[in-house]
Amino acid sequence: MEKDYIRLSQYGYVYQLKTDCLAHFTFQVKACRDVDVGLFNEDSDAPFVYQLILGGWGNSRSVLRAGPASHYYQKYNILDCNSYRRFWISWRNDVVAVGRGVSFNNDMLLSITGQKPNQVRYIGISSGQVLSEWKIPHKQPPLHCFQQSGWKLSSGLQDTNMTVNITWSVTADNLGQCALTCTRRSSCMSFVYNNMKKTCQGHGLNFSDIAEGQGHRHSGSHYYIKP
């Protein structure tokens, strides 16, 4: 039975399906065993494309799976019940790799090839019934791999805030989360994201210039519209 994963798309972690794109995800976790990271093609209940289990089998073994293919790493106590451990996972073309630390491609533990990792768009995390604490970076994945749901920055409207027809506002850790929020609201036609204050506001209209939106210059605020 498929595990219940916490999907990180709600925090803006949505990746492009792009050949030659090196995408990666870093995290810290504190748990006694059974840390699970799933890489998915769909943001739904569909099965994972890849599965990483850290500290399985009583914190004695880890595994990276892709369908019937499995690669194991035999090491006791890779996780710690009382302190955070740092890990990374990356994928590019036909290679998925996993390692320890804050810098991806250093201290690699596991890798698997030939399974088309550019199918990965979404990430889910889980520890089953085991108590765990996670630290996920409050920043978007690499820009060249990051899907902003088709939105684009309006030319000449960087560092600009609009004031007309604001229909909602939320806090957002990154641009992708802001774009996803707007996409899910049928009335949202454009938005302003402030990357300094981590705020996002949606508008029910598209504005061609600063005068039309009754805007003003505001450091860190950028106006986005559909292409």
Descriptive overview:
- With 227 residues, the protein is mainly β.
- It folds into 2 domains: 6-145, Sandwich (Jelly Rolls); 152-225, Hepatocyte Growth Factor (3-Layer(bba) Sandwich).
- Helix content is 6%, strand content 40%.
- The protein has helices spanning 56-59, 175-183; strands at 6-7, 23-31, 35-40, 50-55, 61-66, 69-74, 85-92, 95-100, 108-113, 122-126, 132-135, 152-153, 160-161, 166-171, 190-194, 199-203, 216-217, 221-225.
- The strands form 4 sheets. Strands 1-10-3-4-5-6 form a 6-stranded antiparallel beta sheet. Strands 9-8-7-2-11 form a 5-stranded antiparallel beta sheet, with no helix packed on it.
- A hairpin with a 2-residue loop joins strand 5 (61-66) and strand 6 (69-74).
- The protein is elongated, with a radius of gyration of 20 Å.
- The model has no long low-confidence stretch (mean pLDDT 84).
Q: C-alpha Rg, in Å? A: 20 Å
Kindly report the average pLDDT value. Answer: 84
SSE pattern, N- to C-terminal? EEEEHEEEEEEEEEEHEEEE
Runs with pLDDT <50, length 5+?
none
Largest sheet: 6 strands, antiparallel
Question: What portion of residues is helical?
Answer: under 10%
Distance between the termini: 40 Å
Q: β content, as a range?
A: 35-45%
How many strands appear in the DSSP assignment?
Answer: 18
* CATH architecture name of the largest domain: Sandwich
Strand line-up in the sheet with most strands = 1-10-3-4-5-6
Domain Apple: 145-227
InterPro entries: Methyltransf_FA, Pan_app
Protein name: C3 and PZP-like alpha-2-macroglobulin domain-containing protein 8
